[in-house]
Amino acid sequence: MVTAQITLLIYGVLLLVGGVIGYAKAKSPKSLMGGLVGSLLSGVSYWLLRSDPRWGLGLGLATAVLLAIVFGIRYRKTQSFIPAGLLLILSIGVAALLGFSFRLA
């Protein structure tokens, strides 16, 4: 469970930082909102993981899968590795780790 907790914290921070950078560079409110919402969901997942691992892992997994789909669509549309491709790979990795942890829980 410790690995899942650390993963959710790092993922949440990266989503928040990415959203802020996207807003600062491109003046994109969608990036800022997406980063805030993704970070918030990762934080809630982390909090739930401490009290009820199945719920925390489930929410974290759902968030990572949803964001992988979003970033996959963006990557396909823009063909730009930074940021869409990189976040797609990160989201798939987080989803795989959380899915494995969910299976063990």
Description:
This protein is mainly alpha-helical. The protein has one domain. The protein has 4 helices and no strands. Helix 1 (2-26) packs antiparallel against helix 4 (81-104). The radius of gyration is 13 Å and the shape is globular.
Short synopsis of the structure:
The chain is mostly helical and 105 residues long. Helices cover 93% and strands 0% of the residues. It is globular.
Helix content: over 70%
Whole-angstrom Rg = 13 Å
Query: Hey, roughly how much beta strand do the residues contain?
Result: under 5%
Quickly count the helices: 4
Return the domain count: 1
Structural class: mainly alpha
Q: Tell me how many strands there are.
A: 0
The SSE order reads HHHH
Shape: globular
Low-confidence stretches: none
Distance between the termini: 9 Å
Transmembrane segments: 6-24, 55-73, 80-102
Keywords: Membrane, Transmembrane, Transmembrane helix
Protein name: TMEM14 family protein
Subcellular location: Membrane
Distinctive features:
membrane, 93% helix, TMEM14_sf, transmembrane, TMEM14, mainly alpha, 105 residues, 4 helices
